[in-house]
Amino acid sequence: MVSLQALLKMELEDGYSNLVLDGALKAAKLEKRDEALASALFYGVLERRLTLDAVIAAHSKIKIKKMSPQVRNILRLGVYQLLFSDKIPPSAAVDESVKLTRACRQASACGFVNAVLRAVQRDTAALSPAKGAGLAQRLSFLYSCPQWLVALWLKHYGEVDTEGMLKAFLRPSRVCVRVNTTRVTGEELLRILAGEGVKARPDEHLKTALWLENAGAVEKIGAFQKGLFHVQDLASQLCCQALDAKPGDTVFDVCAAPGGKAFTTAEHMQDRGTLTACDLYESRVRLIESGAKRLGLTCVKARVQDASKPQEAPCLADRVLCDVPCFGLGDIGRKPEIRYKMPDLLAKFPPMQYNILCIASKLVKPGGLLVYSTCSLTPQENEEVAERFLSEHPDFVPKTLDLPDALLRPCDRGSHRATLLPHISQSDGFFLAAMTRIKPAE
Ligand SMILES: C[S@@+](CC[C@H](N)C(=O)[O-])C[C@H]1O[C@@H](n2cnc3c(N)ncnc32)[C@H](O)[C@@H]1O
């Protein structure tokens, strides 16, 4: 019932999945085991919604859109359990779905729900793409990703990487944290976490990144409360590595909230120098302030500032990070609902991103470094913005990224820009490009 309520809320009110689920779980006060099951079903259905709908459509005489939201989501939950989950025996999944239909005052649909689920249960080829489907349609069905997006990725990243990332986005997401190196080493933190019963392992390529294996609610871990780490995906940590800030530097992070990259950068700086971390929204600036306080990072100065408007700076910066607002496709693995965003929303981002990048570039001192990044995976927001910037700003030149080759696509090795794909870098999807401001001749 809890997963159904949360799915209905997502469908009818269009919320963020993590917040919607948290709200539903809090209200229901379930046992730990039931909470885990409700979460798995909720996220499973969200992630696989397009596949589930295609299977339901192939086994129902009534069109999905004509069903009541309750019946539609009960069927999605039922089909998910039949085809993707081994936690519930198939006959129990069907029986429970029928009971749920009755409990939702949809008794007249009980027979229909039973018939559709039994038909899916009998169909051993339920998970085969339609005969004659083209590549984009096949991948769209198999990995529950809209066809427009699959087609865009196929064109831009090719078949192997598109299928690789679609698969990777469906893996259970893992928690990656950044060691607060101003307070502990990775080895020390591993020992402290083990003492608290939290299993963790260092990343193979970045020793300041740890993967937590049985973390639960991170905020409850003592080491977190003592400011010994913050949660940050590997891709964002690599972005900070590319920014390569040094102790004593002056750094601007123009779109900084909630602050993850500002914190890692301040740690690279050993908390010496000045890191001005800006965001458009006051409530989000407070997140930067509270995070920096917990981590004991005093060089972080957070303030409200609109990065799309020129700003006066007392001095130019050694490093400027421009981690712009974006469509967010790289985060699909953690926020499955992003994949269903309407494609027309994409158009507003590139002009805004380009404008922010141009304005941020004015803060870079000659010889200084500018890093442009997004957590999205579209050429319009990524390569096109970065390359347009370079072609229209002759005072900036590409700077080769110094990142582990194993985490990069072969075509990005030795380049000033990289697209991190989840099946290669084992991180969220991400894009970054680095550019140096030329020093005028003496
Ligand atoms: C991708 S997020 C930044 C993530 C951040 N760098 C981190 O690592 O935690 C983009 C941020 O840009 C902020 N933002 C949106 N429009 C902005 C603007 N015009 N000026 C400054 N910040 C803006 C959003 O509030 C959001 O916090």
Defining traits:
442 residues, alpha/beta, N-utilizing Substance Protein B Homolog, Chain A, Alpha-Beta Plaits, 4 domains, eight-stranded mixed sheet, four-stranded antiparallel sheet, globular, binds S-adenosylmethionine
Q: What can you see in these coordinates?
A:
- The protein is of the alpha/beta class and 442 residues long.
- It has four domains: 2-122, N-utilizing Substance Protein B Homolog, Chain A, CATH 1.10.940.10; 135-169, no CATH class; 175-231, Sun protein, domain 3 (Alpha-Beta Plaits), CATH 3.30.70.1170; 234-437, Rossmann fold (3-Layer(aba) Sandwich), CATH 3.40.50.
- It has 17 helices and twelve strands.
- The strands form two sheets. Strands 5, 6, 7, 8, 9, 10, 11 and 12 form an eight-stranded mixed beta sheet that branches. A four-stranded antiparallel beta sheet has the order 2-3-1-4, with helices on both faces.
- The chain is globular and about 80 Å long.
- The mean pLDDT is 94.
- The site of S-adenosylmethionine has 18 residues, from helix 13 and strand 6.
Instruction: Report the structural category.
Output: alpha/beta
- The H-level CATH homologous superfamily of the largest domain, spelled out, is Vaccinia Virus protein VP39
Mean pLDDT over the residues: 94
Largest beta-sheet characterization: 8 strands, mixed
Share of β-strand residues:
5-15%
Distinct ligands, ions and cofactors found in the model: S-adenosylmethionine
* CATH-defined fold name of the largest domain: Rossmann fold
The general outline is globular
When the domains are counted, the total is 4
The H/E string reads HHHHHHHHHEHEEHEHEHEHEEHEHEEHE
Radius of gyration: 24 Å
Number of helices: 17
CATH architecture of the largest domain: 3-Layer(aba) Sandwich
Name the helicity range. 40-55%
Poorly predicted segments: none
